[in-house]
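re: ur question from yesterday

yeah so i grabbed the chain u mentioned. its 288 aa long if i counted rite. heres the sequnce exactly as i have it in my notes:
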Amino acid sequence: MELLLLSIGLAGVLFASVTDWKTREVPNWISYSMMAGGLGIRAIVSLTQSTYLPFLEGLLMFGICFLLGHLLYYSKQWGGGDSKLLMGIGAIFGNGLTLSFLPSNNLPFLAVFLANLFITGAFYGMIWAVVLGIIHREEVRSKLKKQHFPKQKIIWILLPLFILLFIFSFFLEAPFKFFGTSISIALISLLFTVYLLRYVKCIEDVVLKKLISVDKLTEGEWVLSTIKIGTKTICSKRDFCIKKNQIEELKKYKIKQVLIKEGIPFVPAFLFALLATLLTGRILIFFI
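ran it thru and got these structure tokens back, copy pasting raw so excuse formatting
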């Protein structure tokens, strides 16, 4: 049964990654199948083994992913497809599978997976930002010149100090070595993050925000336009995503274009994080 859960989970995330890469969408049937399959198989195991733990584990992890997915969706960090896929992963993997060829870890499976998703998602997003920046380098360069950055002198002073702290920490005894390296890495990361966020915001404004024809608009898009006809608001930038009836209204009133924010295909980061969690059983980089 656990081997079946593993197969369904890997196949679902792999197929979702491919469809997200090609169409920027994750079909609902993939996520719903993972939810139903995970909870259904766990229910069968619970009945045949006369123990409620397998089903309860899946249900509990599904509930946590449900709350987390909704939080990220309504804060406009993730799309609906990402949130539903997370629920499917929670239902299938629960608190981790006990197959003999998978490594074990003292930390809860979901905690390790989410930490790895944060790490792989950050690297994956940075790679996308760099690639988009190279493709649209002229527009990005022009936009960056108009932004105000912190004085370069501060960077040239702080960065060498943080790097020296990082090198010095290797000569310390445990546990000071761990704290020294962790703090120096955090400080260096914070310094780069200031510039990275500005760069990502520039990429978002130049590349990801675009005017598209209403005829090409699909349900679930993040619309940045507020369109009113008289006192009636058809769609608003405060909406979490545009619905099918709103698209029909736009066509009815012959609205030609709307401004949307196009997301990157983020589901492959789920696949990388899941594989890393299954193969290592640990949190990447820190190797807890």
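noticed a couple things. The two ends are 29 Å apart (CA to CA). also Residues 208-261 form one domain.
anyway ttyl
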